[in-house]
Amino acid sequence: MIRILTLCLGLLGTAATADTVRMAVTTSFENSGLAEVLLPALAEDTGITVQMLVVGTGQALRLGEAGDVDAVLVHARAAEEAFIAAGHAPYRREIMYNDFVLIGPAGDPAGTAAAAEIIDALDAIATTEAVFVSRGDDSGTHQLELALWDRAGITPEGAWYLSTGSGMGAALNTAAGLDAYILADRATWLNFGNKAGLALLFEGDTALFNQYAYLPVTLAQDPDLARRVEDWLVSDRARDLIDGYRVAGEQVFTFNATPE
After folding, report:
1. Which of 24, 56, 65, 147: disulfide with 139, CB 3.0–4.6 Å?
2. Is residue 197 a part of any domain in this protein?
3. How confident is the model over 76-104, as pLDDT tens digits?
């Protein structure tokens, strides 16, 4: 499902006069709350309104391939590089990063908190057949999850493995309802209201690094507008907002854009 959100300053006349860029973004970018900080500031500084199409990374790239958006902001490098190789974007520009964390029942029946690496934690879940909720939506989170199962030598299947085909927030709601394990990005987890009996159980593995990148779409209706959005996203103003954004008092994104 595609959710379309338009965030701008809301000043009198702004929406009517501003240029508009259609950008496909990951559900985690929107669920984290960062979009509500960045996009009004972008509109204030540039006069450009961003219309977000909130989807998983796979669907965001398909929208770009079809020319239905002007840019994408996603987090699955291998898929991004394939997108570029196919001619759908000229390049990718890294903007910021955070990390993924393993969430699960506070009692941790699979013993994941004692794992040395994330693949050991997943092996413990599969061995005990503790319920695991997968987004199952070809998002960046889902693609990483599948890659980690593959590294662990596990094919996740059976009654214990539930694929929801949903965004990060909805998948977390399912995990909360089932008292299940789930892989989530840190920002969405901290910003998530319905934690129920869940807790952060495993973190810190370098395999859980989560890079976000901006890709201007080759078939963009107005490449100049897409480039102006990119220029703002790598600016000092964006850096200060990204690094300064806090959820529950914790910094959840780190700006790492570099000059061209």
Report:
1. 56
2. yes
3. 999 999 999 999 999 999 999 999 999 99
